[in-house]
Design a protein that fits this description.
The complex is a heterodimer of chains A (about 450) and B (about 525).
Chain A (H helix, E strand, L loop, with lengths): L2 E5 L3 H13 L3 E6 L11 H5 L14 H5 L2 E5 L2 E5 L4 E4 L5 E2 L2 E4 L3 E3 L12 E2 L4 H10 L9 E4 L3 H11 L5 E4 L12 H13 L3 E3 L4 E6 L5 E6 L4 E3 L2 E4 L3 E3 L15 E3 L10 E3 L4 E3 L13 H15 L12 E6 L2 E7 L11 E7 L6 E7 L5 E7 L5 H9 L4 H6 L1 H4 L10 H12 L10 H4 L4
Parallel strand pairs in A: 1-2, 1-7, 2-3, 7-19, 9-16, 10-11, 10-16, 11-12, 18-20
Antiparallel strand pairs in A: 4-5, 5-6, 8-17, 13-14, 14-15, 21-22, 22-25, 23-24, 24-25
Chain B lengths: L1 H20 L5 E2 L3 H10 L5 H10 L5 E2 L1 H21 L11 H12 L3 H4 L1 H20 L2 H4 L20 H19 L5 H14 L6 H23 L4 H27 L20 H8 L2 H26 L2 H4 L4 H8 L12 H31 L3 E2 L2 E2 H23 L1 H4 L3 H5 L2 H12 L3 E5 L9 H4 L7 H5 L15 H5 L5 E5 L17 H8 L2
Antiparallel strand pairs in B: 1-2, 3-4, 5-6
Helix pairs in contact in B: 1-7, 3-4, 4-5, 5-10, 7-10, 7-11, 9-18, 10-11, 11-12, 11-16, 12-16, 13-14, 17-18, 17-21
The chains are: A alpha/beta (about 450), B mainly alpha (about 525).
The structure holds flavin-adenine dinucleotide and iron/sulfur cluster.
The site of flavin-adenine dinucleotide (FAD) has 35 residues of chain A, from helix 1, strand 2, helix 2, helix 5 and helix 7.
Chain lengths: ~450, ~525
């Protein structure tokens, strides 16, 4: 029986394992150094915030693995010997494989800041880092202030976490406005406002220079490039992530920033594959980045690779881009491509609507010549994935999207709906006379 | 703000403390005339009992029901034993010992409590309500921006099965045990609400009136908490208003007013088989004997269960009943909301749930068939089994223990829907309709789920919502009461409760939306 070994029990590795099990009878082994069982990394924040216990982040009950004959090894892989098709673990016997899947995920970036390895300085990626945070910042007595470095999705989550325990937070963001490397200006501004509403000391266009230590080698303050010294007991480093592939250096596997893979998710060595956060495409697919450190990508790669491993060789062909996040209280969803003001293609134009009072807005991007709908960002309004996916596939115009926008609304029942206001504003801006159509179940469930 | 909260808590605890002390204090002395009246009202024929009470109770003073109650029980027990032995069946008293003690106690109350009902109401209910509101209202400010406010739930003793939760558990269980099995200790409580009861029905309050009144008060106060906590979520606001309305108007006011109008006591929204004694002989008789309104109730109750309930479930899912109308659901959604996360999500508990809840449904229906057979053929036994003993076991095991003591008492430890999930026969019935013939579903938003688990954690019915959401599959579960909290807590906008065409309602998927279209076709369209 063929043995498939998977390094990493994150979403990518586990999805691959589940699908391989569905398709075949192969022996499956998953190795992880981080946790005994698969948990949802995206939920770590809720454990600290007290919304859930760690066990709630585990999507499968513990018997699931045995029942599905997925062997779990709790250990760290130190080296890969592909000539003998063997893995060496920190402890225990080497492990032989027929096919190997590398799904080792990411680790937080550390850009060589002085003091970055002090006590009280940490990222927010792993279960261990969550536990560390619980130790170093249990409440605002033990932690008088935290400084977070890096204004991305994990940074704002860490800020929210600490605020849930009333710990004062200073948030250093390199960019001139929060996450404006991705978000268009209007949205990014709105999030700035919201961050400040939550009493987070947001410092834009500010870089970390150095972290200062106290006599015990623990972080006591940070120095910024604005010349400020900010006293603190905790420094969170959340300036992005890098593939977690150091242990593969010198193993013969081609590495860039991550494990280099082709469209079949194969590495340069036969029978070894790379998926998830740690995989780097030779060439980007469409508008996607070569490394996509998001949950959905890991899952889709797992789904695809399982086919290849089980004899149905399949290229990785992700569909239309989508993503979501939550900025404190504001939910964000995106379908298709909406670029920020710098990365915007020369043909890409935006329609932006923002609620006069509430923190609700949308941005729709379209092709300025043929008015092709390119994508949407929505804040504070939930939208239907299915509908936008369909409109993107059918290459609908932005006018069409406006006309049928009500079909796409996914907010809970009785919520105030803003489509009329949105379309009205659109009509005003473009001199059109679009009448929004009433929502139709038939259209919504047409594909079902 | 924090200080106001703390003051509120102290005031609430004082009110609760006095309320808790009431069963064991108070002065009771029964006058001869009151006792004569009681004998007459209840048509008591046992001279043994009458003389025993006249000798040992009448004209004497007792401190606390604990000193009075055993004397009454003893006297009744002795008298009945004697009458049975002498085959004087006409003289046997069929009132239960504790009910008799409660009846005598109610007439004998003579101390401070019975004489200062208004003041005592204020010191118990009044302080409780005022304190609780003081505790809850500052949240408008303290909770900050509107949005999901679950911070600290698993860090706090009271909501994380700490000692406070266990204390609440023990108190609730004790309260229900008193209510169902030792009503004589509730006598002092009834004084508090006598004036209200007099206003409504024209009668003095019994312990069930205390319970009904308290139910409404607790729901109202906790609904205020819901409004504040979910102020961004219109679905929750509307739903909370709806359960509150049905509890206060339909379950509490209308039946009391009907009694005043000499009509049968009836809660128009309480559907059989939750209302398990609807078809009991005594109820049928009393309805038939109440003229037009009785017949109307008989027809309404039957149509409600056989037509209205399933048709509404077809259009809206069982939520229209369980989390919009039902009283049990209403308490669970208000008082129980802080405990919703404790329902077990394991596969094992799902299995137990299906056996139990369907078992109770079979029990209820079987019992009712027996009852109807007995009623129409005028026999007391069916296939050699006594109908009355089946009814009594149901009333005791399901009606009192499961729905009451366990159903609410277990909130702080096992979640707020223990009864609805494991025991309610109506829920089981609605569940069948919802599962097999309904337009209701919780739609999963394509591939957006990040498996975080908030939805499952906060599902009061113990549904592992995430198991479906992370597969891109709609949630169609008979037990779903449509409270809408999964949708509210989902940080990625994945879940939406909606009623739509039946076609495509159930949509198992292997590969989620967002991946390769060919792959999705390959594995999803079989
Ligand atoms: C706080 C946080 C919030 C996030 N929120 C979102 C979100 O909302 N939406 C979204 O799309 N994405 C989110 N992400 C990103 C998302 O979690 C990741 O993209 C995803 O978890 C990557 O999955 P993976 O399977 O590739 O790797 P991982 O989940 O990182 O799993 C890799 C595993 O391999 C183990 N491992 C690594 N090397 C070895 C070795 N040598 N030996 C043994 N084991 C090893 C690691 O310890 C780890 O357990 C978030 C990430 C974080 C940290
Ligand atoms: S709460 Fe939402 S994102 Fe989290 S597991 Fe449930 S459906 Fe998925």
């Amino acid at each position: 029986m063929e043995t498939i070994v998977i390094i990493g029990n994150g979403i990518s590795g586990v999805t691959a394992a589940r699908h391989i099990r569905k398709l075949s009878d192969k022996r499956i082994v998953i190795i992880s150094a981080e946790s005994e069982y698969f948990f949802s990394r995206t939920a770590l924040m809720y454990v600290y915030m007290g919304h859930m216990k760690f066990e709630h982040t585990q999507p499968y009950e513990n018997w699931f693995w045995k029942k599905n004959r997925i062997e779990l090894v709790h250990g760290y892989v130190t080296t890969l010997d592909h000539k003998n098709k063997q893995l060496h673990l920190k402890e225990g016997e080497p492990l032989a494989y027929d096919k190997l899947i590398i799904a080792t995920g990411s680790k937080p970036n550390r850009f060589g800041w002085p003091g970055q390895d002090l006590k009280g300085v940490q990222g927010m990626y792993s279960k261990q880092e969550l536990e560390q945070l619980e130790k170093d910042a249990p409440d605002n007595e033990a932690c008088h202030r935290a400084v977070i470095v890096g204004g991305g999705l994990i940074g704002i989550e860490l800020a929210e976490m600490l605020r849930s325990r009333d710990i004062p937070v200073t948030f250093l963001v390199r960019e001139s406005s929060f996450w404006n490397g991705v978000l268009p200006e209007g949205e990014s501004q709105m999030i700035n406002e919201h961050i400040r509403e939550h009493h987070i000391d947001l410092r834009l266009s500010t870089n970390l220079v150095e972290i200062l230590a106290d006599e015990n080698g623990k972080a006591r303050a940070v120095v910024t490039d604005k010349g400020d010294t900010i006293e603190c007991n905790l420094v969170g480093l959340t300036a992005g992530v890098t593939p977690n592939v150091d242990f593969l250096k010198g193993s013969g596997i081609e590495l860039g920033r991550g494990v280099k893979v082709n469209r079949f998710l194969e590495t340069n060595i036969p029978d070894i594959y790379g998926i998830g956060d740690c995989a780097e495409q030779h060439e980007s697919i469409g508008n996607r980045r070569p490394i996509e450190a998001v949950w959905y990508t890991g899952r889709m790669m797992g789904e695809t690779l399982a086919q290849t491993i089980c004899g149905n060789k399949l290229e990785y062909k992700p569909g239309h881009w989508f993503n979501s996040a939550k900025f404190l209280d504001i939910e964000y969803q995106t379908y298709g491509w909406v670029f920020n003001d710098n990365a915007r293609k020369e043909y890409e134009e935006h329609f932006h609507w923002r609620h006069p009072k509430e923190k609700i807005c949308i941005t729709i991007s379209y092709h300025k010549e043929n008015r092709l709908f390119l994508g949407i960002n929505t804040f504070g309004i939930r939208m239907r994935h299915e509908i936008f996916d369909q409109w993107l596939s059918e290459e609908r115009s932005v006018d069409h999207v406006m006309e049928y926008l009500k079909d796409a609304n996914f907010d809970p029942e009785f919520y105030t709906q803003y489509e009329d206001a949105i379309v009205q504003s659109y009509n005003q801006q473009f001199g059109t006379t679009i009448q929004p159509r009433k929502k139709s179940w038939k259209r919504i469930f047409i594909k079902a | 703000m924090k200080t106001i909260k703390n003051i509120g808590l102290v005031i609430f605890l004082i009110g609760l403390g006095i309320f808790t002390a009431l069963p064991l204090i108070g002065t009771f002395s029964l006058s001869q005339s009151d006792f004569d009246q009681l004998v007459m009202d209840n048509n008591l024929k046992s001279e043994l009992f009458i003389s025993a009470i006249e000798q040992d109770v009448v004209g004497k003073q007792f401190e606390g029901m604990q000193s009075l109650s055993p004397i009454v029980s003893n006297a009744l027990d002795k008298a009945n034993t004697r009458h049975r032995k002498n085959k004087e069946y006409k003289k046997v008293i069929y009132i239960k010992q504790y009910d008799m003690a409660a009846m005598i106690g109610k007439r004998a109350g003579s101390g401070f409590i019975a004489k200062n009902k208004g003041l005592m109401w204020f010191l118990t209910f009044g302080l409780g309500i005022f304190g609780a509101l003081l505790y809850i209202l500052p949240n408008v400010v303290l909770l900050g921006q509107k949005g999901i406010k679950n911070d600290g739930i698993y860090l706090e003793n009271a909501t994380n099965r700490g000692w406070i939760a266990w204390l609440v558990f023990v108190s609730l269980v004790t309260f229900y045990l008193v209510l169902y099995f030792r009503p004589q200790f509730a006598v002092n409580w009834t004084y508090l609400v006598d004036p209200i009861s007099m206003e409504l029905s024209g009668n003095a309050a019994g312990h069930w009136f205390v319970y009904g009144f308290m139910y409404c008060v607790v729901m109202t106060v906790m609904a205020v908490r819901m409004y504040i906590k979910y102020r961004h979520n219109v679905y929750q606001m509307v739903r909370t208003t709806s359960v509150l309305f049905f509890q206060i108007v339909f379950a509490f006011l209308i039946p009391e007013i009907m009694v005043r109008l000499q009509m049968p006591y009836y809660d128009f929204k309480n559907a059989f088989p939750l209302d398990y004694d609807f078809f009991f002989q005594w109820n049928l008789r009393s309805l038939i004997n109440s003229g037009g309104i009785g017949l109307f109730i008989l027809v309404w109750g039957t149509v409600l269960t056989l037509v209205i309930v399933p048709v509404m479930v077809y259009f809206f899912g069982k939520r229209w009943y369980c989390s919009w109308v039902c009283g049990c659901g209403g308490l669970a959604e208000t008082l129980g909301d802080p405990y919703r996360q404790h329902s077990s999500k394991t596969l094992l508990s799902w299995k137990v749930e299906r056996w139990l809840v369907h078992g109770v449904l079979v029990f209820a229906v079987g019992m009712t068939l027996m009852t109807l057979y007995s009623f129409f053929s005028e026999t007391g036994t069916v296939l050699g089994i006594k109908t009355a003993s089946v009814q009594n076991s149901y009333s005791l095991l399901i009606g009192s223990f499961f729905a009451g003591v366990i159903g609410t008492g277990f909130y702080p430890i096992f979640g707020n829907r223990v009864w609805c999930r494991f025991g309610c026969p109506l829920a089981a019935y609605l569940g069948f309709v919802q599962r097999f013939k309904s337009r209701f579903r919780i739609t999963t938003n394509g591939g957006q789920c990040i498996s975080c688990g908030n939805c499952s954690t906060y599902c009061e019915q113990g549904i592992d919502v995430r198991a479906y959401a992370q597969k891109g599959e709609n949630i169609i579960r008979s037990s779903c009461v449509g409270c809408g909290i999964c949708s509210a807590v989902c940080p990625r906008g994945v879940l939406k409760l909606e009623n739509g065409p039946e076609k495509g309602r159930i949509n198992p998927t292997q590969v989620l939306l967002g991946n390769d279209v060919d792959l999705m076709h390959l594995v999803n369209d079989k």
